Fold this sequence. Notes:
The protein has 295 residues and is α/β, with parallel strands linked by helices. The chain is 31% helix and 22% strand.
Amino acid sequence: MKTRxxxxxxxxxxxxxxxxSGLDLEGERVRFCVRCGGVFLSPHMDESDxxxxxxxxxxxxxxxxxxxxRAATARRxxxxxxxxxxxxxxxRREGLYLEIGCGAGSFLARLAAAGHRAxxxxxxxxxxxxxxxxxxxxxxxTFPRCSGxxxxxxxxxxxxxxxxxxxxADLLRAIRDRLAPGGFVAIEVPDVLxxxxxxxxxxxxxxxxxxxxxxxxxxxxxxxxGLAVESAMYGPAGRAHHLLVVARAGxxxxxxxxxxxxRTWWRRLRRRIVLSRTLAPLSNLGSRPCxxxxx
Length: 295
């Protein structure tokens, strides 16, 4: 387990305990940054533990099996079709595209069917192998540590990946540096503020989600890493808490929200968590915050 000394979104070092409970937390604590309103786990899995976890255990626990069956593939193909419809106008026939965390390649298959060149990177061995069996160019590993040449991409796609990354700023900078001129990055993440308005409540927090974004925190991180947001939208019914943001390389000053707004997010999150003895005591941001502690 690794303990954070600063917020992975804004780099600030002061946070409050949000809660200690979740779907499967094993000693992790959910923190709330008092500067940007970011939500993240600390301590969290370290890099070596995470690599082993995603190779096999993650698929067994969250996908139901190490390899997708026919029903799972059909379901993911349907979601990929929905995503493609929302992004289709951004793909150029002669472009080159990369999907990070591509699973068994449902979105890559949709790109290929539309005549686009695309490749993928997937950490789960079983899912990467299943994608290759579909004739897709999928490498087992993580970006940017995958092997082979380092081309420039006209688009890089991450669907429900960024929340799993311990240092998302580093990943986004690497992505920015691999974009071709005019290239875009499309990122989909669950929005914690919207999700907690629904059925999830305290069971929403889970061990592999190292960071729980909301729209403002994601846009702040993108600006901090040299990516300018071009559009943002939420998913259809059933996935209404899924936020899809498209950005391009560009210099935009990160926006700092006023303390009153950050306190509003804090109160909104706390109200929507089912209180129990496992939760930290309710308090407002005016009291003394935790500074780099792990309690």
